[in-house]
Structures are given as structure tokens and as C-alpha cells.
Amino acid sequence: MGVFTTGASKKALPYYVYLILLIPGILVAGFTQDANTIIRKAIAFNLSGPVCLGIVAVYCYQRKVSYKHMHAILLAMALPIVTMSTYLFWKTPDLRDMISGTGSNFASSGGFGPNQVSTVLGIGMFVFTVRFFMRSPSILLKCINLFLLAVVSFRAIVTFSRGGVITAVVMILFFVVVYFRYSKPQYQRKLIIYSLLFIGMGGITWGVSSYQTNGFIDKRYANEDALGREKEDLSTGRTELIAFELNAFYSNPVLGVGVGKVKELRYEKENIRAASHNELSRILSEHGLFGLIAFLILFITPLVMRMENKYNIFFYSCFLFWFLTINHSSMRIAAPAFIYGLCLLNIQYETPRLSRK
């Protein structure tokens, strides 16, 4: 809606090129489809995320937003996540009887995909961390935001999907480091105290999670099975999927195999029906050289912009969320696209007006 009401960014030429580079893969899929292929569904499933990212980037690239408005955006993201966490507690109030292994758990995820639920809850972990450090002027507000952070973190951990939680921790670490660096010296002392309190809350949350899951969550993050034996594959099968997709790219380096075709090829050759979990290997295998150029545009453009404009304190957190999420969960939800757009914003900080005496 923003593109039609306020217009797209006039400087977003790289992202127009990115969207155009997705077209050859669609044409290849159309020319190589078989009788069992529903081309519309294949394109919608595999390109809805990348196209959404392109549109968000076209709108957000170097768009000016106020510091206050940026926090309003983050709050608007966080409130539905609180509702989602409440639903998860209502759906699965007692976890001890339903967890008997170390695999990703659909029951503790409310019946939805654990990977996606963990990713969304990870966003909530980051947002409430930001609000704890930056938008809590009173002790009461700090306690409220710390409590909400603990609740969301607990629900993210007990999904047994590690990707969303680890990504959230990386986002938080980069945010705290950048925030500490740009804070005034007198506030940095307070920031250290808040960080220790924050770490203590994290330890308590993990302890509760371990108790509620009968210790299975500790084994999950130690890459062990329910009996405590170390698993051979840390990536839970993702390595094999990536290897197959890279081989498809080597066999079709220019145009790729076509949108949605790598899943069909995997079933034909290995009798495995599994969608890609890695957006980089997927875009290479299905779009070929055009996909490689498209990914380089997505990766390099924000970094170049950052060299010219260093005012976005959330840049590294948002950029890393996008990059890490597409490497463990591909782009099945719109969250990576939206968060990627946030790292392209030009945040304007309010300065006090000068008054003459």
C-alpha cells in the first residue's frame, strides 16, 4: 500500500534489477513443467517471499523515518507476538507430558511449524530487548518489558527449533554492542548493570525451560538425542539438501532448473519430498547465474548504503536476521523480507531547536 500511496524510493534501482532477475527462472519453469506440475503453486510457494522482499526494499530503501516512528514500528511488531505467546500458553499449558525427544516440537508450537514459530518469537525477543534498554524510562516499564522478554524467550526455546533462538541472540548481541558504543559515558555504566540483569533473566529462563522439558532442551542444543548420544548431523538434514541444490546449480549454471523444480528433481532422483531450507542454495539452483547476481544485490546494497549512512542503530541486527533466517528457514514467511526493509531505512534523530535570547 505504501508504494501506491507515498510512492517507491527513487534510489532503489538495484532492487528493480533484482525483481527483473527473478523472471528467467519463471520462464524456465514454464518451459520444463511436466504433467504433474502445477506451475502457479510452484511459483507462489517459492517466489512469494523473494518478491515480497523486493517490493519492501523498493519502498524502504533510504526512506526517512523518525526515531520515534521506528520504535512505533517495532512495538507494532511486538504486540501480536505477545498475543501469539498467550495462545501458545493456552494451547499447551503443561509441556512436561508432551515432550519425549529432542526434535522440533509441533505441540509446543501450537500445532504450527516450529521453525517459523521460533523465528517469529525470536523477533519478539529482539524487540523487547530494545524496549528494555531504550524505551523503559521507569523501573516499572523495565520490569514489564523484562517479563515479556522472558515469556517470549521461554516459548521460543521450547519449540525445540534452534534457528530462531540463535538468530535472536545474535541480533541482541549486535544491538547491545552498537548501543553501548554510541551511548554517553555516564550511561554506559548503567548499561553494564542492565546487561547483567538481562543475562541473569536469560539464565533463569533457560533453567525454567530445562525443567519444563525434563532436560531435553539441554540435549537439543548439545546436539544429542533423547538418550544423550551425540547426533551425527548438526544441521538436521539441511546439509544434504544444500549439497543437492548446489549440484543442480553446477549442472545448470546459467538459467538454473526453474522455479520450484529442484523439489521435483530431488523426489525423482532421491525419492525425498523436501522443500529447500536455504534461500541461497535455492536461488542458485533454480535461477542459476541470474540468482547469484540477485543475491549479491541483496547482500551488497545494504552494506554500501551503511558506508554512507550510519545512523540506523538497528542496521546490523536487522541485516543479520535476514541473512541468518534465510539460511535456516528459507523465506517461507514474510518476516525476513520486512526486517530486511528495516535495515534500509534512514532514521532521523530529533535535535533540539535553537532559540535566540
What does this structure look like?
With 357 residues, the protein is an all-alpha fold. It has a domain at 65-232. It is 67% helix and 2% strand. It has a two-stranded parallel sheet. The radius of gyration is 22 Å and the shape is globular. The relative contact order is 0.15. The model has no long low-confidence stretch (mean pLDDT 88).
Percent helix range: 55-70%
Main beta sheet strand tally, sense and closure: 2 strands, parallel
What's the tally of helices? 15
Alpha carbon gap, first and last residue = 46 Å
Strands of the widest sheet, in order across it, are 1-2
Poorly predicted spans: none
Round the Cα radius of gyration to an integer and report it: 22 Å
Secondary structure elements and pairings:
Blueprint: H1 2-5, H2 13-21, H3 23-31, H4 39-60, E1 64-66, H5 67-91, H6 114-134, H7 139-157, H8 162-182, H9 185-212, H10 216-221, H11 238-251, H12 261-270, H13 279-308, H14 315-328, H15 335-342, E2 346-348
Parallel strand pairs: 1-2
Pick out its properties.
mainly alpha, two-stranded parallel sheet, 2% strand, 357 residues, 15 helices
In short:
The protein has 357 residues and is mainly alpha-helical. The protein is built from 15 helices and two strands.
